Amino acid sequence: MRPSALNPLFSSARTLGGIGPRTIELLKKCLELPPQIAEPRVLDLLWHLPAGVIDRRAEPLVRDAVPGTIVTLKVRVLKHKAPPRGNSKVPYKVTCEDDTARLDLVFFHAERKFVESQLPIGEIRYVSGRIERYGETLQMSHPDYIVAPAARGDMPMLEPVYPLTAGLSGKVLQKAARHAVERMPDLAEWQDKGWLQARGWMGFTDALARLHKPQEPDDISPAALPRQRLAYDELLAGQLALGLVRLNMKAQPGRPVTGDGHIRKRLVAALPFKLTNSQINALKEIAADLAAPHRMLRLLQGDVGSGKTAVALMSMAVAVEAGAQSALMAPTEVLARQHMETIAPLAEAAGLRVGLLTGREKGKGREETLKHLVAGDIDILVGTHALFQSDVVFKDLAFAVIDEQHRFGVHQRLALQAKGAGGATNVLVMTATPIPRTLLMTHYGDLDVSRLTEKPAGRKPVVTKAIPIDAMERLIERLRVQLAEGAQVYWVCPLIETSDVSELAAAEERHAHLKQIFGDTVGLLHGAMAGTDKDETMAAFAANRLKILVATTVIEVGVNVPNANIMVIEHAERFGLAQLHQLRGRVGRGARESFCMLLYKEPLGETAKARLEMMEKTEDGFLIAEKDLELRGGGEMLGSRQSGMPGFRVAEVPGFDMLLAAARDDAQLILTTDPDLVSPRGQALRTLLYLFECDEAARLFRAA
Ligand code: ADP
Ligand code: MG
Fold it and tell me: Measured from the CA of 308, which atom of ligand 1 is nearest?
């Protein structure tokens, strides 16, 4: 259970003064919280760190104020000059002075009463904002602060600037963050005292306070002490959580799973192709891992189109040969069904019994499947998240494959594992995203990796070209020619704003447009469609009844239609490299020459330009991933977002590698000397785990 001292941090941000329902909505948008967090909490505000600081400490005499800079001035109010009635273009002016010069405060569309109450004639006021020269006069338009001498202390001389969203004011966020800091309970120090001293780090709460109420402009820098301390806290929490999960796994015996190869032999005979050497190697590694007495957790990494599905099927056969069951889990309905379609004929040829379970299997059919499953009459169950439901009971699940794993969280992986006897299910996760080593380590610890490095024979390169959207007419003419020759086209429309609604609108509009030109052979696929409609559309495209499939990014993951040979991506400049690469991977799978057309809107930013050029230059997923990291630079140096891995809140700082290594050692030492976290430091570390929401790991320590 989470220590009750932390409750104030986990309560809704509404409990901070001055935050109503409207602000909550804006905050939700601004903080980009994961979907399971329904409402921003106090903690989420604390982790929303300032991106900059406005320095108001320059307090010159008016005469000496440098135009173009931010200054705080002490002035006397001389006179008000309201704009002529009915002319809203002319601003309201308030003339002020000190002993050296005059200054106009300028307000456009001012509310007269407000200005009068803020700046009474004859009074002294402190005003802060950007000063400018306007002809002969000095002026400040819309000062950021106007305060009376008595309230002078309320003006933040170093004002944190937060990443914002339209409609949310910086002042609201500042205030909320300040209140959030005040909510910090007294927490016992979890870091080693000597280590803190050596690094010159302050306490956790002080560090947070420094970020939200900086005392020096540099305080908020990712390289500065406060941020470094918090980064280390996050990394230590992560490493500790991983260590706990690993200890727990080790404590539970795995089961050796070996087969005699008879089903695999039949599968190989039924496959319409020869396995690549990469596939054969990966299979060897997986079989050896399954045969070992520990529990398996392995990652199969292979670029799009490298043939991971065949490897999954062959590995699942091992468990069946051993008399047990396997499961294959996909992130989407479309993909689960596609896997089922690929696997079913092969399975039949090899004498494997396969079942399907997604959110759409309901009623009698579902009951039937569950009955067969628990009786052991299904060898391989293919499905989606629906496999997690508690009434899904296997007779003997020995092996689970998770496809495109980055869509699943760690807790889901653990839940699946628990479905096996004694929670001993062996797990293989498959991904096309080349996840950087550091990131893997941070999230999984020492996970074993198999790689598919070669592509199946006969793959044609995909000719990739970036063209401005203005050239679309020419593109459509070329498509006409291609279609006449039997081509099939994916046409992807991206997220225009942050809501799915507009992505949908863009796709619908393009669909209508293309339909006018190409008629009924143009289909539309989007996330909001009913499942059966999605299937039908996908099936029509796969069967070549539809020639052009306009889609939102739902097709990104894993769809396999070998005859499709043209990928058009609209607003390609808005996609990340990894995503572009994923999308392009949908074509180049068949005999036809393939193309990827990246439509962009001008003007193109530097980074977007570099991305598109990279796409034109190479198809190598690893090179692309590297370039992606490079282009992302410091802000997202680990590419966590790109790979879909759960990101960090504060840990992406200079010196990350060093901090991570130290955190790993530290966690190891802690778990060797105090595996149940019962010492005083251990107790404090439990709080740390909860603070960083490593709850699934926290659940693992024995009640103390
Ligand atoms: P991914 O690794 O992206 O999941 P898939 O498993 O969907 O790739 O395979 C992509 C395509 O390559 C499929 O049409 C599959 O039948 C085919 N394929 C897989 N392995 C081979 C192989 N060894 N030789 C030829 N084609 C193969
Ligand atoms: Mg796949």
Answer: 2
pLDDT at 196 over 60: yes
Find residue 125's DSSP bridge partners.
75
DSSP line for 497-538:
SSSHHHHHHHHHHHHHHHHHHHGGGEEEE-TTS-HHHHHHHH
Mean pLDDT calculated for residue range 509-532: 90
- The third-level CATH classification (topology) of the domain covering 198-210+223-459+652-704 is Rossmann fold (3.40.50)
- Reading the block at residue 164, the tokens are 């914002």
Nearest CA to ligand 1 atom 5: 307
Atom of ligand 1 nearest to the CA of 302: 2
Whose atoms come closest to the Cα of 558: which ligand? Answer: 2
Report how far ligand 1's centroid is from the alpha carbon of 68 (Å): 61
In b/e form, how buried is each residue of 343-360, taking b as 16+ CB within 10 angstroms? beebbeebebebbbbbeb
pTM here? 0.61
Nearest ligand to the CA of 581 is 1
Q: Which atom of ligand 1 is nearest to the CA of 312?
A: 6
- For ligand 1, atom 1: residue with the closest CA: 305
Which residues have C-beta atoms less than 6 Å from ligand 1?
Answer: 273-276, 279, 302, 304-310, 432, 456-457, 558, 560, 562, 589
For residues 244 and 220, the answer to whether their CB atoms sit within 8 Å is no
Structure-token pair, residue 388 = 């997690």
pLDDT at 475 over 90: yes
Distance 134 CA to ligand 1 centre (A): 68
Domain 55-161 carries which CATH code? 2.40.50.140
Question: Which residue in 108, 104, 110, 109 sits closest to 139, CA to CA?
Answer: 104
Strands 137-141 and 397-403: what pairing?
unpaired
* Multiple choice CATH, 462-618, 3.30.1330.60, 3.40.50.300, 3.40.228.10, 2.60.40.3710: 3.40.50.300
Q: What is the per-residue pLDDT for 241? A: 85
Report d(CA 509, CA 507) in Å as an integer. 5
Q: What percent of the chain has pLDDT over 70?
A: 88
Instruction: Assess contact for 257 and 322: CB atoms under 8 A.
Output: yes
Q: How far is CA 393 from the centre of its chain?
A: 32
Which residue puts its alpha carbon closest to atom 16 of ligand 1? 307
Q: HSE of 237 in the Cβ direction (CA atoms, 13 Å)?
A: 24
CA–CA gap between residue 566 and residue 586 (Å, rounded): 9
Comparing CA positions, the residue from 627, 307, 617 lying closest to residue 462 is 617
Distance 310 CA to ligand 1 centre (A): 7
CA nearest ligand 1 atom 18, residue: 307
